[in-house]
Amino acid sequence: MKIEDITTEVLNSKKYANVDKNVVARISAEIIPRYPKRKDVIKAVKKELHIIHESFLQDDCYLKVEQLLTNYPGKDINKDESFIRADKEFALKLLALHSSTKERLRQVEEIYQYLNKYIQAEDEVIDIGCGFNPLALPFLENKPQKYTAFDISSATISILNKYFELSGFAYQAAIYDAAAGVPGIRGDILLLFKLFPLLEYQKKGRAFELLNSLDCRRYIISFPTKSASGKEKGMEQYYSSRFEKELPEKFSIIEKKVFLNEMFYILERKNF
Question: How confident is the model at residue 226 (pLDDT cuts 50, 70, 90)?
């Protein structure tokens, strides 16, 4: 079996057409040795893509975001309270279309008040595996001077860049497969929201390899504490015990904070 053939067939599926070709090729290369039959390889590749990407998408979410953006209220010129309120309300509609960000809606104000302590206006922020996270920027009081968002979906990247342009943020979104390697990423603040489990699912130790390779001053990492169905299943204890046990020594845990559905760690790199 050829990687190119498997990749092409998977990308011809409407559900996975927006996933970056290199991501599909990498997963195909990892799965082909496990199965002798082509149909089993295709099934396994699609299953992995469903778990790490497609399962988080609400029905027609990309189309709905595009439609909402046509009515974007406009960038904040006067920074008055009425605009800020309208901008947040608009952001809530966008965030509700992706299950990962939808889970934060009940505590979105509290979560971003917490993040505001660690993100300053002079910072350069790197957001890996971002999904719809950047659409919550109206809740971030200290807008960083630079923000680069990375994801494996071309549709997500297109939407984010359109949002950045409409909102007046001089930010950028680009394709990047966090499981494939590190493209010399360096910044002040690194965001890894609920990405650790997805990387570890693909290969044990892969998330720590990524963390160990990135060159940033501070790291904000989160884990889900409940399943997609809302059940706890001991996830908080499982993730926290393993993460704290295997965290490389060059990182210090500054703070840990647990919200309804999500647990955050604030790390600093020693001798940065």
Answer: confident
